[in-house]
Amino acid sequence: MNGAKGLTNGALPATNGAVLSDDDLKRIATARERFAAGADTVHGVRSEILVSWYRCREEYEVDPGLERAPAAAEGSAHSMGHDVVFAELGGWAACAAGEVDGLDGLVTVADCEGRVLASWGSRRLLRLAADSNLAAWSIWAERTSGTNGMGTSLESQRPVLVRGPEHWCRSFDPWTCAGVAVRDVVTHEPLAVLNVSCWRTPQPGAVLPWLSRVAAATEAKLRQRARHTGTLLAAAFADARVPSATPLAAVDTAGKVVLANSAAAVLIGTPADTPAYAPAQRWTPQVPGVPELVRWVTERARQDPCWRGSTRVYVPFLGTPLPVAVRPVLTGTQVIGALLALGSADGSDVGGSDAGVPDTGAPDAATPPGRPGASLPCPRLPSRVVALREDRWVLLDPREIRFAETDHNNVWLTTDQGRLQAAARGLDRLEQDLVDKGFLRVHRRFLVNLGRVREIEPGFKGTLFLATDTRVHETVPVSRRHAPSVRQALGL
């Protein structure tokens, strides 16, 4: 982590609307000045703020003397899913004052890049906000404006509160800001952010719970839409005209498997002929290159909906790369996933109902621009896992980790060095980093290092328990949905 050592997260309360005393404000302001000057050891700063400061200093190099947020460059095109979220959050923002008692604040909706789309509030607050460029088409991402409610919530999996000198830029200290990101329920990437800002006054305690409710309600609607796209992917799978022996799988835009036939299921390590329409039910393929491949295919298909092609991916089950033909699946102009025909170098194998769409005809058509003739590389995953333990960053060899557990979007690692908080944001991200290191998702909350499993205990109605340390009876539950892949991986 660029030499960051001795970082101390102090002992202030967790994120809430508590008023900071004058002494607290002075202590945090002093810590910020020391940290901005290069110190790695500071006290009295919440861990989520300290981590944000670190990004601002080391990764984004934001000037703490910045007086106004910069104007946004020309905005990028948004998908229909984004537009639905913007409309939903705009409705919530417009009625925020009636939803949160005692609120005298500015309510702002920004896109996934931190560009402000619209603000609601009194004329007084709108005028004050304009002084900091907290207005439409300014950009409040961390990389441009430092630690703040909008930008930091885009980097976090939960609502974020930034009070006074917790901002990275001193000019924003008069504001107290709370933000929450609404995320794509398939890819978990942020779509938009809702933010509440108060001028020289603490935020009502009801703001953070309200933001959580808004995000949950909006994402619930997105899950309904995503379930529908799951049925469309399954329909595209059924409509694909391929030889019966061809390993075929339908995957969403995150690379999760919605449906696979028997031949594909053996190769990618998922159940066969078992549709998983809802995002939470979809299967993670045991082929590390699939998520990266599908992300690239999704971007390519957004530029050219008629595109299809092929490449090679490394299949651990075979221990060798395997050709794979790819066809994006669209509904209207929205890319919802892809069909993968493993063992096929001809994209026509997944023609389906739109088989008349021109094929690229090139065996390496899935090659990224600028690299003619090369296949998409399997990702080179990190050899170390970064964790945070009170006063320092800890670099872990994956073999030191017995299992990982998610708790309210924080990821905790049970390791040979004790229980540590992972720097990774979300268990899905950690799973992608460790999938080729012998780790397997065994439960929606648990990721296990199979090399550290010592005993297996049968549970109720097909569940299992994996013991990773028999000295203290340390066990991890395996859900019924994941039990078949665990049994297969362990040779049971």
From TrEMBL:
Instruction: Fetch the Gene3D superfamilies from UniProt.
Output: 3.30.450.40, LytTr DNA-binding domain (2.40.50.1020)
Locate the HTH LytTR-type domain: which residues? 394-492
Biased composition of type Low complexity is found at 355-374
Q: Report the coiled-coil segments.
A: none
Short name of one Pfam family: LytTR
- Please list where the region (Disordered) is annotated: 347-378
Q: Which InterPro entries match?
A: GAF-like_dom_sf (IPR029016), LytR-like (IPR046947), LytTR_DNA-bd_dom (IPR007492)
GO MF terms held by the record:
DNA binding; phosphorelay response regulator activity
Protein name according to UniProt: Transcriptional regulator, LytTR family
